[in-house]
């Protein structure tokens, strides 16, 4: 199995993402985590960019021991001097120098002829080689460059001392087949390239960065440049976690290995998110919130029977404790029963049927149904008090310039009985209207309302305590509407009182 070197550029190209700047302490923490993750090379920054960048690269060079530590440098002596000063304390330092090779970049940006670019590249590799054994040379915008021109420049910089040749897709322009053929053509025309590492560095402008990196690996690339969470200039770089897990998961067709400890992936992703404050999208492969979540009944049933039905890798393999069954309106009976068991409820078939119907009704109103919602549905069911009174409908009217009123209709022995009342707020008015209907002569001893679940669409649980002849009757009501929850709680307490008086 061929080993692929993982070159992490989260701290250099990743930091070029708007909003992803990190301070020196954050960069050191991130670099240490990258070391635990097992990356082969950390590109710690672009030393000449600022004093802060220089200090960060230097601090990382002093603080990590296993990975190679690289600094980027233009093909300019001052950049190379600065890069060397920053990385020279590393156990394994690397200078990474680059120059653009596409006609468009040479003409408009560098304002140099191809011959001048070759001369600068060769001279600067030789210059860097005086400092450092390990020199990476990148041909910026390689995929829009002439492959025969690249072959010429690569052959010359390898002879000048380059130990790694990087062929970047700087603007995320290529496609997997094209990149494969492009690299093959360069290899065929660069005799010395076979003795050194071939690297690729893909951007995600067309969403092809990972696919292109994998195609490049199949064409003979031995080093892949990537970033955690795929952050980077514009649409970002190839995502480290996606490349590594593609290699790990498709060993049947990708006969490669990496030194990455995949169990550190999630921790690394979250550390970066915490440092930058830039969240990954929920559906992001491998590290997104939903990457191991199942919501639909058919999938949940499959996963409960055998995880591999819908999971091509285990959450544990990337450092997540478990997958996630999200209960919502697409969920089915199997997942619901499984959650009831996890929560410790053993219900009869009929109770499960009723609870499931109620759960589906609730799921139509709420985006996610949480464990608290389910407990609320089920605990109501296990009290077994007959519902003598049931809520049929209610209307309340309130505001800070009017007296609150409520009109409530209850179902009692197959008849609807309604009444109205005013009160101090809609809940007080509703309670008074109910009392007019049920006429229990009980007093309201206590009332409490709280949220039982999370989120904007959380359910409110109301607790009502009615007192009659020194006996307290406690009622509970749950709803996404707090007035409805309160009315239901009042009626529940009334039903308990009536049950007690009748038995
Ligand atoms: C594809 C990539 O990701 S490349 C890395 C991109 N990252 C960054 O640019 C982040 C760090 N950059 C910086 O802090 C600054 O751009 C610096 C310090 C490097 C340079 O700043 P300035 O001197 O103000 O130049 P500025 O950024 O405006 O322009 C770039 C200059 O570098 C030249 N240049 C660009 N690439 C190279 C190269 N590989 N080799 C030599 N010169 C280069 C340009 O022609 C231009 O030269 P000019 O000033 O003579 O016209
Ligand atoms: C400097 C090189 C490697 C780069 O970042 C790019 O081409 O995108």
UniProtKB/TrEMBL annotation:
Binding sites annotated in the UniProt record for Mn(2+): 13, 201, 203, 237
Catalysis performed (reactions): 3-methyl-2-oxobutanoate + acetyl-CoA + H2O = (2S)-2-isopropylmalate + CoA + H(+)
Gene3D superfamilies named among the record's database cross-references: 1.10.238.260, 3.30.160.270, Aldolase class I
Region spans: Regulatory domain: 390-503
GO molecular function, one term: acetyl-CoA C-acetyltransferase activity
Top EC class for this record: transferase
Cofactor entry: Mn(2+)
InterPro entries with a match to the protein in the record: 2-IPM_HCS-like, 2-isopropylmalate_synth_dimer, AIPM/Hcit_synth_CS, Aldolase_TIM, LeuA/HCS_post-cat, LeuA_allosteric_dom_sf, LeuA_bact_synth, PYR_CT
Pfam families: HCS_D2, HMGL-like, LeuA_dimer
Top-level lineage group: Bacteria
Domain Pyruvate carboxyltransferase: from-to ranges: 4-266
SUPFAM superfamilies: 2-isopropylmalate synthase LeuA, allosteric (dimerisation) domain (SSF110921), Aldolase (SSF51569)
Keyword terms: Amino-acid biosynthesis, Branched-chain amino acid biosynthesis, Cytoplasm, Leucine biosynthesis, Manganese, Metal-binding, Transferase
Gene Ontology BP, a term: L-leucine biosynthetic process
Subunit structure: Homodimer.
Function: Catalyzes the condensation of the acetyl group of acetyl-CoA with 3-methyl-2-oxobutanoate (2-ketoisovalerate) to form 3-carboxy-3-hydroxy-4-methylpentanoate (2-isopropylmalate).
HAMAP family, per the entry: LeuA_type1 (MF_01025)
Name of the protein in its database record: 2-isopropylmalate synthase
Organism listed in the record: Anaeromicrobium sediminis
Source organism phylogeny: Bacteria, Bacillati, Bacillota, Clostridia, Peptostreptococcales
